[in-house]
Every structure is written in structure tokens, then in C-alpha cells.
Design goal:
It is a single chain. The chain is of the alpha/beta class and 292 residues long. It has two domains: 166 residues, HAD superfamily/HAD-like (Rossmann fold, 3-Layer(aba) Sandwich); 117 residues, 3-Layer(aba) Sandwich (Calcium-transporting ATPase, cytoplasmic domain N). The strands form two sheets. A seven-stranded mixed sheet has the order 1-13-12-11-2-9-10, with helices on both faces. Helix 11 links the parallel strand 11 and strand 12. It starts with a helix and ends with a helix. The structure holds adenosine-5'-diphosphate and magnesium ion (MG).
Length: 292
């Protein structure tokens, strides 16, 4: 491509809200065969809501919610916000906590009024030596509904299964249809539960799911897609998406996401509207075609 045609192409892209930080990315985007997308905050709004809470044994819902929200108030994870918001809606006041710890990709823990509270994914409970099997049926039902199941342990006993649901962005279904119409394979990469991820992928017609990825594992997921022969564009918004954005043949960051994601990407979407991904690909193809 000539420098002029690239300038014209990137100028047109900027008008539709797609910022090319490097002109060459227009060419790599044209060659992309796989679009891999982060789930939370990219395909979904990144604003989950608490939908279910089922207690075990003699624990009460109010007691569990109070303890869990007190711990989650210390966390910046979107799941934490969902749980804290649910207590606010019920007029509950969280307690102060001691010894807060976050185990990225697993969960969070703290002492609340001398009670040890742990909240997180099933793999976190397993790490703590707890068996989540009693909730297997509920977990499957919730995940099949596209909700993310979490567990709470209190003083070393499994106390509840909690579900949060993160709504899919309005623009996502049309964006995926347009990517398919351009002949691209669409993949999802997420730290979330496999069954939940598969339910959402089915709903959206996503071709491939890489789930239960640890925070530093997204880069390996991108490498694997590349090793399978794909020219991979990765779309993400979070801090833990930065290495995958850098590893991809084209990194596309959402401009409403974190700064570090934007700095690691060649392309930045000015809004969270995912239709700009197929639009930018169509533009890259038209631009490079014109100058051949
Ligand atoms: P993602 O951004 O895809 O949710 P993360 O690596 O941040 O991936 O988290 C993976 C999983 O770890 C979450 O889906 C959740 O089950 C658990 N987890 C992480 N942080 C928290 C938290 N603050 N509270 C409860 N669970 C958490
Ligand atoms: Mg995200």
C-alpha cells in the first residue's frame, strides 16, 4: 500500500471512530482470518448484576450477602461491583474487613467480624480444599442460562452459590453476523466458567470458545490460534488483555477500557460498539484493494 492510500484509509476509519495507531495495521487487519474477543467488557457490557444466591446448610441469605459484600467492597472486579450494588439496593451496610487478599483469576478473601470469608470461582474453592459438588445441579442450570456461578465459603465451610449475569451489548449480535459475512472465524477468550462461556457463545453463534483462562493465559490462547494457522486480531478492554493485544497480529482495544489495553493495541475503537470491528475490516479490504 502506498503511504497516501494508508493515510486516506486511516482518515476514513477515524471518521467512523476507529483509530489506527499504526498505518501498517490496516494491512494486517485486511489479512486477519480469526477475530478473537475477550468476553467481559468486550462482548458483554462488563456490568454484571447479581441474579441468584442459594445458601447451604443453616446459613441465611442475608448473612451470606452481608459477609460477601463486605469482602467484595475491597475488590475492583466487575463481579465485586455487582455484589456490592445488590446490598446497596437492599439498604445493607457493608462491614469493615481485615486481611483482604485477591487471588487473580480465582477469587477474594478477608476476615469480617472475625469470620473468614472466601468468594470466587469453583477452582478457588477446590484450591481451598472445598467440594462444590452439592451445588452441581444449580451450577449447571445457572451456567446454561449464561450466568456465572461463584461460591462463598464462611469459616472454611461452603456457604452459598451465587450467580451474576453480564448483559450482552446491543451491538454484539450484529457485529458477529457481519464478521461471519466477511468470512472470518470468531473466537471468545475468557476467564469465566466453561459452561457459561459456551452458553453465551451458542447464543451468539461464536465458532470457538477458550474458557477458564487465567489472567496471564490469554496470550497463550492467542498463540494457539496463531499456531493453528490463523492471522489473529484480538479485541479486548482490560488490564489482563494487554499481553494478548500485543501478541495478536492486530490488537484492537476498546477506548472506554483501560489505558494499558489501548497502549498495547494498534487499533483503538472510540466506542464500545463492536460493529466497528467488521466495519474497520471492510474498510481495510477496500483500501488495500484500491491501490493494487
Ligand atoms: P474475567 O475477566 O473473564 O472475569 P478473571 O480472571 O478476572 O476473568 O476472573 C476469573 C474468575 O475468577 C471469575 O469469573 C470469578 O469466578 C473469579 N473471580 C475473580 N475475581 C473475583 C472476585 N472479586 N469475586 C468473586 N470471584 C472472582
Ligand atoms: Mg474484559
Amino acid at each position: 500500500a502506498t503511504p497516501t492510500s494508508i493515510m486516506v484509509g486511516t482518515g476514513k476509519a477515524a471518521k467512523m471512530g476507529v483509530l489506527f495507531r499504526k498505518g501498517e495495521a490496516l494491512q494486517s487487519l485486511r489479512d486477519a482470518t480469526v477475530i478473537a474477543l475477550d468476553k467481559t467488557g468486550t462482548l458483554t457490557k462488563g456490568r454484571p448484576e447479581l441474579t441468584d444466591l442459594v445458601v447451604a446448610g443453616d446459613f441465611t441469605e442475608a448473612e451470606v450477602l452481608q459477609l460477601v459484600a463486605s469482602v467484595e467492597r475491597q475488590s475492583e472486579h466487575p463481579i465485586a461491583e455487582a455484589i456490592v450494588n445488590a446490598t446497596k439496593a437492599r439498604g445493607m451496610e457493608p462491614d469493615t474487613v481485615q486481611h483482604f487478599e485477591a487471588d487473580p483469576g480465582y477469587g477474594v478473601a478477608a476476615l469480617v467480624n472475625d469470620r473468614r470469608v472466601e468468594v470466587g470461582a469453583d477452582r478457588y474453592m477446590r484450591k481451598l480444599g472445598l467440594d462444590v459438588e452439592v451445588f452441581a445441579k444449580a451450577a449447571h442450570r445457572l451456567a446454561d442460562e449464561g450466568k456465572s456461578p461463584l461460591y462463598a465459603a464462611i469459616d472454611g465451610r461452603l456457604a452459598a452459590i451465587i450467580a451474576v449475569a453480564d448483559p450482552i451489548k446491543e451491538s454484539t449480535p450484529a457485529a458477529i453476523r457481519a464478521l461471519h459475512a466477511e468470512g472470518l472465524q470468531v473466537a471468545m477468550i475468557t476467564g469465566d466458567n466453561r459452561r457459561t462461556a459456551e452458553a453465551i457463545a451458542r447464543r451468539l453463534g461464536i465458532d470457538k470458545v477458550v474458557a477458564e483462562v487465567l489472567p496471564d493465559g490469554k496470550v497463550d490462547a492467542v498463540k494457539r490460534l496463531q499456531a493453528e494457522g490463523g492471522v489473529v486480531a484480538f479485541v479486548g478492554d482490560g488490564i489482563n488483555d494487554a499481553p494478548a493485544l500485543a501478541q495478536a497480529d492486530v490488537g484492537i482495544a476498546i477506548g472506554t477500557g483501560t489505558d494499558i489495553a489501548m497502549e498495547s493495541a494498534e487499533v483503538v475503537l472510540m466506542s464500545g460498539d463492536l460493529r466497528n470491528v467488521p466495519n474497520a475490516i471492510a474498510l481495510s479490504r477496500a483500501t488495500i484493494r484500491n491501490i493494487k
